Structure formats: C-alpha cells, structure tokens
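Narrative summary of target 7.
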Amino acid sequence: MKNNDTQQVKCPECHKIFRITSAHLAVAHGQIVCIDCKAKFDGQQHLLENELKKAVLGQTVVKKTGWLRRFLAFGLALLWAVLLLAQYYWFYQPALLLQNAQIRPVLTQGCQWVNQYAVPCHLPLTRDTRQIAVKKRYLDVHSHQADASTLHVVFENTAAFAQAYPYVSLSFMDENKNIIALRRFSPVYYLQDEAALSKEFAPNEQVHMKLDLRNVVAKMHTYSFQIDFL
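Modeled conformation, tokenized:
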C-alpha cells in the first residue's frame, strides 16, 4: 500500500468518520486522535473497511446462530410432542403400541438394554382375540363309554406378534337353546402347564385343545365356545 493512500477511519467514541493517509497512520504506529472528541485510538483497528467487515461478519454470525436456535427449538418441540403422544398411547391405548409390528421390536430391544443395568423391564403380552382363528373343531363321541365325548378345538395365533394364551369358554345347550352347562378353561388347564399364563402364544402357533366331557352329551343339542381374555 502506498504512503499517500487515503483511507476512512471511524472514531469508536463519537463515531465520526474522517479521512487519513497511510503515512499518518505509520507516524505513531497507528495511534491517532479524533478531530472532534479528541479520543485517542488505534486507527488500524478502526478503519472503516474493517468496521464494515466486522459488521457483515457479525450479521452472518447472528443469522447462523438464529437459524441454529430455531432449528433446535423446533427439534425439541417435535421431540416433546412425540413423547407426549407416546405417553398417551402407552397409558390409554397400549395395544396400539404393543401390537404394532414395527414398534414392538423397538420396545423389546429397549427393555433388553434396560435389563442390562439390573432395572427390571418386561413388556406385557398383547391380547387381540380378533387375530386368534379357530382352524378346526369337532366332537368325538366315545362309543365304548356312555355319555362321554372329547371336544377338539384347534386355534391359531394369526397375528404378526406374540400374545397371551386365551381363555376358552364353552356353553352347552339343549334343543330349546337353554344352557345346561357352562365351563371356562384357562391356558394352565388346556396346556397342562402351570407357567402358561406368562408364556407367549407365538405367531402362527397352533394349539390343539382336547376337553373330555361327561354327563352332558345325552342332554346336549348344540354347543358354542368363546375365546377371550381376563
């Protein structure tokens, strides 16, 4: 830069803008005195060109910071909304989460991760009778024993997820459709397993239930059964 180059300087105190040459700046190592307020300052640090660069840089930083803050605020608001929605479904409609083929594996993995830290976590078994289909049913009357028969019922979990084993209710009716006997069987009974209530009814698993009947065949005209849960 030539010594007779003229530049503009801005006073940091009164903001007066005046011209000065490079030679003047070099005399006192850049230290100059404002012609208006007499404030002494470093002219090199307050060249108008530098001031403009600082202003532009400051605006850029403010814009970037403002965008980042808005992005973070939006992300936190979205996360909060998702957590509230998940909490609502967990307490009021848990089946929608527990039976979802995409969400259930995520919840299961989360529970397994929590269990690593000695914190008990167990997802309740889902219960959806609409996805338990009766594949076969028939009554096998014993020819060698009077008033005795065996009822066979084969049902399957058609859901894509495991669920609890259901209860089975049987109603026996006479020809006037009056109920002459009513029985309800738990999974412990028809699976012959004391731990059946806590076991999973796996997807596509079939259960062949056999129930021996006594003293109802002679009076029975028809029967009905219902699959349900407690």
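The chain has a mean pLDDT of 79.
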